[in-house]
Specification:
Elements (H helix, E strand, L loop, with lengths): L8 E5 L7 H5 L11 E3 L5 E7 L2 E10 L2 E7 L3 H11 L14 H9 L11 H10 L5 H15 L1 E2 L8 E2 L3 H4 L4 H7 L3 H10 L19 H11 L13 H10 L5 H8 L6 H11 L19
Antiparallel strand pairs: 1-5, 2-3, 3-4, 4-5, 6-7
GO cellular component, one term: protein-DNA complex
GO molecular function: alkylated DNA binding; DNA-3-methyladenine glycosylase activity; DNA-7-methylguanine glycosylase activity
InterPro entries: Alkylbase_DNA_Glycosylase/TA (IPR051912), DNA_glycosylase (IPR011257)
């Protein structure tokens, strides 16, 4: 239940065009039980963030074509200043070229889909590492465990919401808690190693980190810096989704890159629209299996 608590700060933002809040910001939710993200009964959404100024909670409420932002905690002002970027204020979907009638149809259907940014690279990088080569439910389980155990209660009116740990704190998580979260040593070492780099200043150099490849970098950059051209090469599903949506057949990474090449600068946008509006092939064959390293 939401308690009536006056926000520390608030603002109303009028976007330059249509914004589908759930399509834009929902990308940052890590599973239905994400402790740092909540859809509220009144149509608002909530995010708990460790900002440069400290922990903060942001609630965004659609109001006609505008958006009301209310924020709590030391990071409240930062969150409100960043809110337009989160909702895609700096993105320009109209500049996307149309080389295929399907893409033109997607752009019409996805008028409110913008590529927003959080300006928090670390909070995009950690979940991306957790999601490497595993099914989502496994990664989401680990995220829930680690944020609840090592994060802090979020300020504001909604109970049982947690701010993810600051970058420096991830290095201090004991080995046994990584194990209890279901994370094996490889991903644990990748996250621990990444704590040594100022990722907020070097979002374009994430692949220098041991264990961070093109897929992880693209997943983090798309969310943190609003990179509309990020391509998660190596994804288990995306090449097939793009291939089937554009030419009616599955392709591999090389085929996907060839199909996306005419849309340079907007390749991630094409992927997002294919995921949301593209026709998919019927699922057949083996699926990735869920593993539980806690039993090992």
């Amino acid at each position: 239940m939401t308690r009536v608590v006056t926000a520390d700060h608030s603002r109303t933002w009028s976007p330059p065009g249509p914004v589908d809040m759930r399509a834009v910001v929902g990308l940052h939710r890590r599973g239905a039980g994400d402790p740092a993200f909540r859809y509220l009964p009144d149509g608002s959404l909530l995010r708990a963030v460790h900002t440069p100024d400290g922990p903060g909670t942001l609630i965004i409420t659609p109001q006609g074509g505008d958006f009301l932002g209310r924020a709590w905690g030391p990071g409240s002002q930062w969150l409100l200043e960043q809110m337009p970027g989160l909702l895609g204020a700096d993105d320009d979907p109209s500049s996307c070229p149309v080389h295929h009638p399907v893409v033109g149809d997607w752009l019409r259907r996805a008028r409110g889909l913008r590529i927003g940014r959080t300006d928090r690279v670390w909070e995009a990088l950690v979940p991306a590492i957790l999601e490497q080569k595993v099914v989502g439910v496994e990664a989401f389980r680990a995220w829930r465990y680690l944020v609840r155990r090592f994060g802090e209660a979020a300020p504001g009116p909604v109970p049982d919401v947690w701010v993810p740990p600051a970058q420096r704190d991830w290095a201090d998580i004991p080995v046994w808690d990584w194990h209890r979260s279901g994370i094996e040593p490889v991903r644990m070492r990748t996250i621990r190693g990444a704590t040594q780099m100022d990722v907020e200043r070097h979002a374009d150099k994430l692949t220098v980190l041991r264990g961070v490849g093109r897929w992880t970098e693209a997943e983090a950059r798309a969310r943190a810096v609003g990179d509309a051209d990020a391509v998660p090469v190596g994804d288990y599903h995306i090449p097939s989704i793009v291939g089937y949506a554009l030419i009616g057949e599955k392709v591999d990474d090389a085929g996907m890159l060839e199909l996306l090449e005419p849309y340079a600068g907007h390749r991630y946008r094409i992927i997002r629209m294919a995921e949301r509006h593209g026709v998919r092939a019927e699922r057949r064959g083996h699926r990735m299996s869920k593993r539980d390293y806690r039993a090992f």
